[in-house]
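Researcher: Please translate sequence to structure tokens.
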Amino acid sequence: MKKALFYAALAVLAVFITAGIFAEVLAPCDPNAVDLANPLAAPSSAHWLGTDHLGRDLLSRLIYGSRSSVFLAFFATGCTLMAGSLIGLVSGWAGGWLDQLLQGVVNLFQGIPSTAFVAAVLGLLGPGIRSLLIAVAASSWAGFSRVVRNQVLAVRELHYIEGARALGAGSFSILCRHVLPNIMLPLLVLAAARVGSTVLTVAAMSFLGLGLRAPAADWGIMISDAKLYYIKDLKVLLAPAACLTLFCLSIHLIADELRDRLDGEGDGAHML
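Model: Translation complete:
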């Protein structure tokens, strides 16, 4: 049963990624084309899921929303992973005063509520994709850094690391050839779990008007637009909410399966 859920989650994720990549081909209409003569229209051959309050094709906006929401979440998670991993590697490998200094900074960032921090950064930098990436990365890197540091502390004392040192290998070579490959799988589990929370953060900021701005096709913006019209037509709210739910559920099922396959190596994922 659990394997079936895992493969179903992979299929759902593949659908969202495919929709984002081939949005221009798959979307039946221009997602921003307004048709004020047909607001909140019922599903039809012209509009398979109907239209929103401005007469825009709902299915097209959902498909383009996969691109803005999903790919922004993946890219933001990648930036967070690189920044947190780099700082964690340096902290765990160097030790001493540098480790204490970096961990003091990590503790400071982990003590700040992430959603409030993202909102504060966006309020300072202004809305937009670049600001959203900076805000998400700045609020999330500390968790990755802490886990990477703990993994490095465990790996650097192993016998083959001492053997590499004895053969004259430098720190950079040891980190790239021996340390990173041993901590990569737990990091993938962390990254998978983080993608789900990141897409929720992106949607929340867009809902609040601090992320992407209308008329961009984004699930958070669609939910924000629907709050005044869902009583008349519930599908304008349910459609983007269902996409968010399915995407986050599929990501967490995939991360859970990866954690199980890693056995004890995935325990660090709960620290994020």
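Researcher: Any highlights?
Model: The chain has ten helices and no strands.
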